[in-house]
Amino acid sequence: MTEPRLAIVHERFTEYGGSEAVVGEFARTWPQAPVFAPLVDAARAPAVAHPPWDTITATWLDRVHAATGRRSHAPLLPLVPRALRGLPLRDGYDAVVVSHHSFGIQAALATDAPVIAYVHSPARWAWDPAFRAREAGGLAGRGALAALGVLARRAELAAAPHLSAVVANSHAVADRVRDWWGLPAEVINPPVRLDRFAPDPALAREDFLLFAGRLVPYKRPDLAIRAAQRSGRRLVVVGDGRYRRHLETLAGPETTFLGAAPDHVLVDMYRRCHALLMPGVEDFGIVPVEAMACGTPVIAVGEGGALDTVLPGLSGAHVAHGADDEVVEGFAAVLADPTATDLDPAEIRAHAQTFGPEMFRSRMAQVVDGVLAAR
Predict the structure, then answer these.
(1) Who contacts 280 (Cβ-Cβ below 8 Å, separation ≥6)?
(2) Is 1 exposed, middle or buried (0-12, 13-18, 19+ CB in 10 A)?
(3) pTM for the predicted model, two decimal places
(4) Average per-residue pLDDT in the chain?
């Protein structure tokens, strides 16, 4: 039986994060499939420079990006749908697998083959005004993001009917796909590479809390800082981003900023901290799974991907979503209860291992095979 010819599409390789890790697992699942993306900046995303595939095919838009000295890709985002619609996907592909978080499913308009969309989320900044308000800086920024949001909503709604299958990375994202696109979605949690993450029996837990991730508004590192202050606990912040300067004005001596620390530092922090704080509402959230793989309990706002990953009483605790002051008080209440985080590290790690890449690849292959069998 001839192997089906697949193509893989990602929106942009301009940094390395969870969505790029997903594309890496796609390439391991279908190693002969070419990978396409409008923008490919290997210099700013070192992990993309040596991927598990031989090449990534960029588009004319990447040449524009290169001509600007590869400054911020943000001004080019309105052109991404056009670049995706122009991808050479009509050349005999049996199916196309798309990684989507803003415009990716526009590739469905570039092919007659069935398209399977793995949705990290419909564009939250396009559909959710409160989320957009937190992400935009100043009046001009809000106006620009609102205009881009109109484009993103129209683009998603135009392409969504052309999808053969939709896979959401969490139940929260599946709900958005239902509410915003009017489509059902199967849930397959994204892969987490757990080989680097494990407890170290030689290390004792220390009395500090950890926040890890990009320092951007939607991840709410400000609430982690406030919760540590309210609880009288030390906080270590691993990560960097445009929000850092503002956060440093909020923080006191209880907070230490390590910046974008290398992996071995992050793993060391996971292993030694008392608990990881996750105050933002994530589509899924790979950081808490990495922490749990090190036997670390996670205290998270009980919304979004945390409902899939953090199991109260087994791997951590949930804090009710609400106004900022209520969330801070919720974290303080959990931290004041020693039983909330006095959990078995072995059981925490065992739970994290259910999110490994092998299960992800197997389930994605089943979805694609099902779509091809139904043709």
Answers:
(1) 213, 218, 219, 220, 221, 223, 301
(2) exposed
(3) 0.82
(4) 91
